[in-house]
Amino acid sequence: MCGRFTNAVTWRELVELYRIHEDDQAALNLKPRYNVAPSQDIPICRLGEAGREIAQVR
Predict the structure, then answer these.
(1) What are all long-range contacts of 29-32, with beta carbons under 8 Å and residues at least 24 apart?
(2) In DSSP terms, which residues pair with 42 in a beta bridge?
(3) Domain coverage including residue 40
(4) In this structure, what are the phi and psi dihedrals at residue 17, rounded to the nearest 5 degrees?
(5) What is the dihedral of CA 11, 14, 12, 2, to 10 degrees?
(6) 54 contact partners, CB below 8 Å, separation of at least 6
(7) pLDDT tens across 1-57, in order?
(8) Predicted TM-score of the model (pTM)
(9) Residue 55 CA, distance from chain mean position
(10) What domain count does the chain have?
């Protein structure tokens, strides 16, 4: 089974969608990716100590 997916969300869209405080994090340079493989780093939204945050994970 293939685990590939697409990511067409910009940094601004992530901030607005998940109500992330930009002051707490540096803006990620997100570009559309239409063939993301399971072994590549991707941005996720997770609950951190200060609230929602974006993290790059694999």
Answers:
(1) 32/6, 32/7, 32/8
(2) 57
(3) 5-24+32-57
(4) -65, -45
(5) 50
(6) 14, 18, 20, 25, 28, 43, 44, 45, 46
(7) 578 888 888 878 888 888 887 655 556 677 788 898 888 888 888 888 888 888 888
(8) 0.64
(9) 6
(10) 1
Q: Which two tokens stand for residue 46?
A: 């997770």
In DSSP notation, 1-46 reads ----EEE---HHHHHHHHT--GGGSPPP----EEEE-TTS-EEEEE
The pLDDT score that the predictor gives to residue 22 is 62
Tokens 């992530």 sit at which residue?
Answer: 14
Task: Decide if 56 contacts 41 (C-beta within 8 A).
Answer: yes
Residue 58 confidence (pLDDT): 86
Tokens of 32: 């559309």
